[in-house]
Every structure is written in C-alpha cells, then in structure tokens.
Amino acid sequence: MVITLKVLVTGFEPFGKEKINPSWEALRKLPDEISGAKIIKKQLPVTFKGVKALLPELIVEMEPDIVILTGQAGGRPNIAVERVAINVMDSTREDNEGYKPEDEPIFEDAPAAYFATIPIKRIVKALRSERIPAMVSNSAGTYVCNTAMFTALHTIAIRNLSVKAGFIHVPYAHEQVLEKAVPSMSLRTIKKALEVSIQASLGL
Ligand code: PCA
After folding, report:
1. How far apart are CA 104 and CA 4, in angstroms?
2. How far apart are CA 134 and CA 48, in angstroms?
3. What is the C-alpha separation between 12 and 18, in angstroms, rounded?
4. Which residues line ligand 1 (CB under 6 A)?
5. CATH number, domain with residue 93
6. Is 43 strand, coil or helix?
7. 3-state secondary structure of 173
8. Residue 132: inside a domain, yes or no?
9. What is the pLDDT of residues 41-74, one digit of tens each?
10. Does 1 fall in a domain?
C-alpha cells in the first residue's frame, strides 16, 4: 500500500497598505506534489478571529501530516523559520476586520507557548545549502502570524494528533519595495524556499 503524505501549506491575504502578500504569491505557484507528498494550499485571512476559527477546521478536515504556515515579515532580510509561538495577541495595528487586541491570550487555559515541531534547524540548513539566506527566528511577533502558529500547534496538542507544524516568515517581494529602502527577496526565491522547506520537513 502506498501512503501519500499530505502537507497543508498556508499563506495570507494582503494586509496594511500592501497589495500583495508574498507568502501567498509564492505558495500559490507551488506544484500540487513535492517529493511524492500531496500539497494542499490555502489562503488565510489576516484576522485574529478568522485564523482561530479556520485553522482547527482545516487541520481536522484535511488530516495533513505536516502543516507549514507562511506569512510576510516586512523588513526582515531573510527566510525566518520560527521556533516558538506564544499565547498572546498584542497589536498596534488593526487586523483586516479592524480588531486590535492588547495583551489578550489567544486561548484561555492554554500553555504560555508551543515550540514548532517541524525540523527548524534542518530546514535552515537545507535553505542555506540552496544558497537562500535563512535563519531560526525566536519570535513570530504578537500579531496574526503568531496567532496562526499557536492555533495550529494548540489544535494538534489538544487533539493529540501526530501532525508536525511550524511557521515560516518571508521577506517582502521586490515589487513591494520599489520605492522603499528595505530588504526584499524575489518571489521565485521565496517559492524555492518553500519547496526546500517542505522537502526538508518530509525528510524526517
Ligand atoms: N504577516 C503578519 C500577518 C499576516 C502576514 O502575512 C504577521 O507577521 O503577523
């Protein structure tokens, strides 16, 4: 019997003043199969409530073996593989439905933090060996991306699922910074980075 692994990969819709979100632009171009695994691509809204409602549904319905969430980290220079998600929503900017939480827990009665369960060091190593600048990041922030990572890991923990999950932040795409002096990466390289990260996660 051939067992096909399933990888759920998510990116976000645009937020703030941006017209695109490089996480979604890169991932929507991924093939439907990588190293024999089925790739399921979903776009998430940039809303705290949306990711808290949608991610548990997606994980339960799709039954993925691996969940790789991705998002834009404007201003960061490289691919950032997140180590940890914390149980807090604290934002200075409104989300896409105007919600701006301050010091709120994502879930009451949940731990303070969860560590990523995808192989973060292996992913960074694989990216670097493809000559893609990458690092482990020790904070996914306290905005919607951190909430998404926390929600996925919490869903997996409370349901006792054997699913690996983690979050990868990507820089702005070149087209977003044509008139700004901030770091960016080509969508082509970001797409390659996601492919390499998926392959490295499957290689466990
Ligand atoms: N980045 C934001 C939310 C959506 C996205 O792509 C973040 O880092 O929280």
Report:
1. 39
2. 27
3. 12
4. 12, 15, 21, 23, 46, 71-73, 141, 143-145
5. 3.40.630.20
6. strand
7. strand
8. yes
9. 999 999 999 999 999 999 999 999 999 999 999 9
10. no
Number of domains in the chain: 1
Could you confirm whether 82 is annotated as catalytic?
Answer: yes
Q: Could you tell me the distance, in angstroms and rounded to a whole number, from the CA of residue 5 to the centre of ligand 1?
A: 27
The closest-lying atom of ligand 1 relative to the alpha carbon of residue 44 is 4
- Give the residue-averaged pLDDT of 103-115: 98
Domain hosting 50: range is: 6-201
Nearest partner of 85 among 160, 12, 124, 141, judged by Cα = 141
Helix or strand (DSSP H, E) at 2: none
Tokens 């893609």 belong to 132
Catalytic annotation present for 145: yes
pLDDT digits (tens, 9 = 90+) for 18-34: 999 999 999 999 999 99
In a domain, 156, yes or no: yes
* Cα–Cα distance measured from residue 37 to residue 149, given in angstroms and rounded to the nearest whole number: 22
Would you say residue 109 lies in a domain? Answer: yes
Q: Is 102 a catalytic residue?
A: no
Provide the pLDDT confidence category of residue 3 given band limits of 50, 70 and 90.
confident
